[in-house]
Each structure stands twice: as structure tokens, then as C-alpha cells.
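Fold Annotation — chain and its backbone

Fields — amino acid sequence, C-alpha cells

___
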Amino acid sequence: MHQKALLFVLLVAGLLCVSLAPTCWAQDQNQDEDADVEDDLDLDLAGTEDDDELDGDEETPPAPKAPAAPKVTYKAPEPMGEHFFAESFDRGTLDGWVLSKAKKDDADEEIAKYDGKWAVEEMKDTKLPGDKGLVLKSRAKHHAISAPLLRPFTFDSMPLVIQYEVNFQSGIDCGGAYVKLLSETPGLDLDQFVDKTAYTIMFGPDKCGEDYKLHFIFRHKNPKTGQYEEKHAKKPDADLRSYFTDKKTHLYTLVVNADNSFEVLVDQTVVNSGNLLKDMTPPVNPPAEIEDPDDHKPEDWDERPKIQDPDAVKPEDWDEDAPAQIPDEDAVKPDGWLDDEAEYIGDPDAIKPDDWDEDMDGEWEAPQVPNPACESAPGCGPWKRPMIDNPSYKGKWKPPMVDNPNYQGIWKPRKIPNPDYFEDLQPFKMTPFSALGLELWSMTSDIFFDDFFITNDRNTAERWAADSWGLKKAAEGAAEPGLAAQMLTAAEERPWLWIVYVLTVALPLVLIIVFCCTGKEKKTTPAAEYKKTDEPQPDVRPAAEDKNDEEEAAAEEEEGEKEATTEEVRKKKLRTRSNLCQREAGINDPQKEDDILRRSPRSRRLRKD
């Protein structure tokens, strides 16, 4: 029992260590980061003198190299199947892309130009040498770049599938990484691509502050007015934070089907889905009825559900002037109260400043400090009775509230048919688009884009993703250490983690073994434990057993006496009957009488084993 209690205490201690481990780890990381910053500052200030000193020191042995990760060889993806746009940037140039030369309206002249820099290069910490992409290089600038499709995409009976990759190499503070599918219009000029250029769909990640978004917006054309209105998909249910902060390459995919359903995927996992008719804001179709703008509430319309009772009368004993609190008449001034002492006095040690000008500053007075005489007393100054709640206080009288007999409910304007009503049951049939563009503002540079692909076949898009993003995922996964390696590395840096590992792994196993394989010990008598090979034991029985035997013998003797008495009574009855029978039969021979008694079945006794 004591062992189990000890193990239980150890388990509680282990759980406490596990719960405190993340906090301690975070503190260690913060200390490490602070130390790194201090080391960097020290290195920056050291100069050439430290270099000379280092030259004189002995060379430190090189750190042991980690085992080489499995190498993933990059191969440029080749589009297979029907597609409208495919770009992997493996040529290393911006051929086919158009940089905007326009200015943004309603912006300061200094930042109005779309002069943000773009480059085609590998990622800074690439795990897949040879893989290049489009990189947004400038911060706090407007960027705009676009490329035409192989042919315009028309929404008919085939789905739209667009996908591309994004890697926030330096994280992201405030900025977007979304794409725009530019509508096919007669006046489309990619040189003048700006924020107001007509687009059909806008899709992709966007973040500012702690607001993480994944846009899906399409512009719907009103069939009655010809005006376009943006329709925004509902927010994803998934947590998007890690896609912006983990500095990994993520694959963003949008699928819009001819039945008006849509799916938004990140890394081939659905994070949002819905229907264009049901899950867009504002709705595609306006309401059939609207409130009449010319309808006004009547002046005599009563919306009050409750009113004051007009028949209520204030009680005669209701005193509205009674105060809420009164002095406590039962209170008594404490002994030792110093009525003549002030609670605060002028500081006797204070000295008037030399630059004090009484003409300008007035008469100087020492600052007030607590009176030391009041420290040991219950109080100082004039004593006043404490205030208590007035039991007679009722406050200002108000009539009680009753149901309003004239209540008419909350007024609403009447409904009329919506003059702008229409019903579009196929919002999938959007405006055709003929170009893809990036029009972005970002406070963070080095945003990496790659492997844009537009098709009307989902299988084709998945093959492209397997040949492009699939390689990146494999390379990044191969470069990361396994869970066991991460735990060992962390324990080498922080030895106290070994305690956590032992308590979380070994201790539960020990507890399971103890509780499952042990139980209450059964008490056995010495006779039960005796074997033939053991030494002979004396025939000594406990006193309790002897007592039980005596009681059993007495009971048997008493039972035997009762049986003997019963037998004698039975024989007497038989003799009496036999005599009667003999008299009737005329038999007086005693020998015959004994034979009759012996042959009688009632005189026979059962044998007891």
C-alpha cells in the first residue's frame, strides 16, 4: 500500500513537470534569443581587435556534422492534359510576364507608382536546388505584374481549377499574396494593370495584424442593370495562422464547379467549401420583396408593451425624503481616540526650496505627511458616527408597470415587390477571363510564388501539383529531423528534459505493472502451507477448534437422548396396541407378544452412517 502511495505521488510530480515544461522551454528559448542578440551586438562592436585576438587562439575543433538528409532531385514539371495557363519559372526569366507602368489613383505621389521589384530566383533557404520562382522583392511598395492565358477561360459545363504556391520566406506582417483572374474586356491593357482593373475572381491568402484571410471573391454581373458586385465567400473554418508563419511552401487551390459548388484547399486539404447561391455575401440574388421606403410609422402607433399603472396611488406612509443612510446610533467612540490630533500634519523635515518665490508661487507650505501620533491610536480628529443603511429608506415612489392595453407591437414598414429583383440560378457562368495578375501591397519582402496552373480538369491539376509542390514537400520533409531526433537535440540543450521524458514514459508503465500484477495478499494457515517434504508438525489445534468440537459433541449427545426417549414412548404404544389385539383375539402368551413387537416396522431404527 505504501508503494502505491509513493508511486501516486511520483505520478503527480511527473504531470506537474510535464505541465511546466512548455513554460520553462519558452523561457529558455527567450533567454537563448536574448543571448543571441547580445552576442550579435558584441560581434558588431568588436572590430578588428577581436579578430587579432582570435588569430592567436587555438583553433576550436569543428562541430560534428549532422547526417545528410535524403536528397530530392528537382525536375521541372511538364503540363499534361488540357490547361489554360502553366508557369514554373524554370527558364529563370520573366518572359511572358508584363510589369505594370501605371499609377494607383487616390494614393500619395511617392507610393502611387507600381514600382515594386520582382525577381525570378530560388528560395533563400531552398531545399530543392534548381527550383526557381517569382519573388516579390520590395517592401512598402505597390507591385503589379500579369501574364496572358494561352486562351480565354469560358465558364460553360467544365469546372475551373486554379492553383499556385506561396512561401512567406520572411514571415508576413501586413500584405497579400492573392491572384486576380483578369476579365476578358476589349480594353484590357496589361501595361496599365491597376487595382481597379476588372477581374472575374480574386483568390489567395492575405494578412494584416492578427487577421488571417484566405480570399475567394467573384464579381457577379446584375442581369438587369449590367453592374458588377463583389461576392465574398464565407470565412474558412480552419485555423490559417500556420500557413503564414511556418515559412513552408503551401499549395493554394480553388475549384469552382458547374453546379455552383466550390472548394478551397490548402496543401490538397479542404479548408472551405460551399455554394455560390447560399454561401456568398452579399447573396447573389436579391430578395423578392423589400421594405417600402415611402411607408412611415403613424404618429399614434404605440410600441410600449408596458406602461405605468394610471390607477396606482402612492401609500400614505411612503417617505420619499428619507435618506439612504443614517448615522449608527449604537456606535461608541473607541477608547484612545485623539480628537485634538490632526490625521495629517506638515512634514517637519521639509525645507522650502531656494528658488521658491512667494510673490509668484504663494506662501510656501510643508507637504502633508501622516501624523505619527495617530499610528498607535484608533483614530485622530473629530470622531463621527459611522453611516449605516436606513431601514426606512424607500426612495422615490413610482407607479408599478402594467400591460399596455393599446400596445400595437414594433412597427415595420410594409413589404413591396423589389423592383430590382432578379433570379440567377447559374452564377457559375461568370465573365470569361484571359489573364492572371498579381496586384499587391506588402510590408514584408521576399514572398515566393511558383507553379501557377489553370485548368478545367481536376486530375490534370493534381498531376501538376504532384510534379511541382509534391517535390518541395518531400524535400522540406526530408530536411526536417524526425521526432526522436528533435527530442534528443532538445534534451542535449536542456538536460532537465530527460526527467520529463522518464516521467511521461517510464512512470506510467511502472504504475500499470504495479496495479495490474499485484493485489491483496491472501492469509493462509500453516497447515495449508505444509508439504510432505517438510518436517513433522505437532498435532496442536487452536483453542477455538477444540471449543467447536466440544459444542458439537454435546449437541450429538443431547440428540441421542431425545431419540432414546422417543423410542421408549413408541414401544409403550405398541405394547398397548398389542395387548388390546391379544385380548380381542384371546392371546395371552407373552412370548408371542414379544415376537409381534419385534416384527413391527415402527420398532426398527434406521442405521446412521
Summary: Residues 565-609 form one domain.
